[in-house]
Amino acid sequence: ERIFTELIRSIEKRHSEVKQLIRDQERAAVSRAEEQMERLEQEIDDLKRKDT
């Protein structure tokens, strides 16, 4: 029973670590996407200015 309890605890800890890793990766991906959008918006503005 003790081994089973330790196994469950280990699985729960790993599950928590994986969830945190996924959250961190998601935040990083969102940040990169936002930066890319800002660059594209700036490029659009620059192109509009050149066109006028």
UniProtKB/TrEMBL annotation:
Tell me the keywords, alphabetical order. Coiled coil
Where do the TRIM8/14/16/25/29/45/65 coiled-coil region domain residues begin and end? 1-52
Q: Does the keyword Cell membrane apply?
A: no
Which residue windows are coiled coil?
8-50
Task: Recite the lineage of the species.
Answer: Eukaryota, Metazoa, Chordata, Craniata, Vertebrata
Q: Report if keyword Flavoprotein is assigned.
A: no
| Source taxon at top rank | Eukaryota
InterPro entries the UniProt entry points to = TRIM8/14/16/25/29/45/65_CC
Q: In its UniProt entry, what is this protein called?
A: TRIM8/14/16/25/29/45/65 coiled-coil region domain-containing protein
Which organism's genome codes for this protein? Cirrhinus mrigala
